[in-house]
Write a sequence for this structure.
């Protein structure tokens, strides 16, 4: 996983802005393994929370080694956590570190009593420090509308509705050689469309899928496309998201 924020940092920054040390939190290095060094989080999804009921969850985080910035891949020296927005009221988190280094494992305790119904898609702000020509450089702050969400439901098991219900998922892998997964997260049913364009604006690919609540992916196969940068658009329920993907 070469995208800095998506996936790995999403779970780290789950529920709360206030960052503090948590001495009793212990990383699960026995069961959480970072195969091929893309970064890892265990577990990879958040349990549903219940309104006005105490909630607690511990995560193990292994930061990624690389940072993909506009198609260029840099080695990560460390990552600073800046802030998180769009959080369910009543939940917070405590991490055993505020600076994350790729050669270490970290843990996070998410706890509290949620007092607001809804499905909350989190927005994360981080600052990466990267290695380049034997020097360390601070990169620009990165903002990510993450695919991670937490649902707070009532005792009847019915979730509420949040103001940010549809989010674009990060492309994996990016760059790609044969195929790549492009998708979105939603709490609705419907038909989603993927459009891929050459940099000149000509359409190179189109497909559609049936979207269900949760994570949904287009299995984009681009092995016949020439190498280069492609623009793509994901459309669903009247919303459109655009970004780019690189064919190597």
């Amino acid at each position: 996983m070469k995208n800095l924020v998506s996936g790995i940092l999403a779970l780290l920054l789950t529920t709360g802005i206030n960052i503090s040390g948590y001495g009793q939190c212990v990383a699960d290095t026995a069961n959480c393994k970072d195969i091929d060094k893309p970064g890892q989080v265990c577990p990879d999804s958040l349990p549903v929370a219940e309104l006005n009921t105490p909630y607690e969850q511990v995560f193990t985080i292994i930061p990624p080694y690389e940072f993909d910035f506009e198609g260029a891949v840099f080695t990560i020296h460390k990552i600073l956590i800046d802030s998180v927005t769009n959080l369910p009221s009543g939940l917070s988190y405590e991490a055993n570190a505020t600076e994350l280094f790729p050669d270490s494992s970290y843990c996070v305790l998410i706890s509290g009593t949620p007092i607001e119904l809804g499905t909350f898609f989190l927005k994360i702000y981080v600052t990466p420090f990267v290695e380049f020509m034997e020097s360390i450089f601070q990169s620009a702050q990165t903002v990510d509308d993450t695919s991670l969400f937490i649902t707070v439901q009532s005792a009847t098991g019915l979730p509420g509705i949040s103001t940010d219900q549809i989010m674009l998922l990060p492309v994996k892998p990016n760059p790609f050689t044969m195929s790549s997964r492009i998708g979105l997260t939603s709490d609705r049913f419907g038909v989603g469309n993927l459009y891929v364009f050459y940099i000149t604006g000509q359409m190179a690919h189109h497909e559609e899928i049936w979207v269900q609540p949760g994570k949904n992916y287009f299995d984009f196969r681009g092995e016949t496309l020439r190498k280069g940068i492609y623009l793509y658009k994901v459309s669903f329920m009247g919303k459109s998201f655009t970004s780019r993907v690189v064919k190597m």
About this structure: The radius of gyration is 19 Å. The chain has a mean pLDDT of 75.
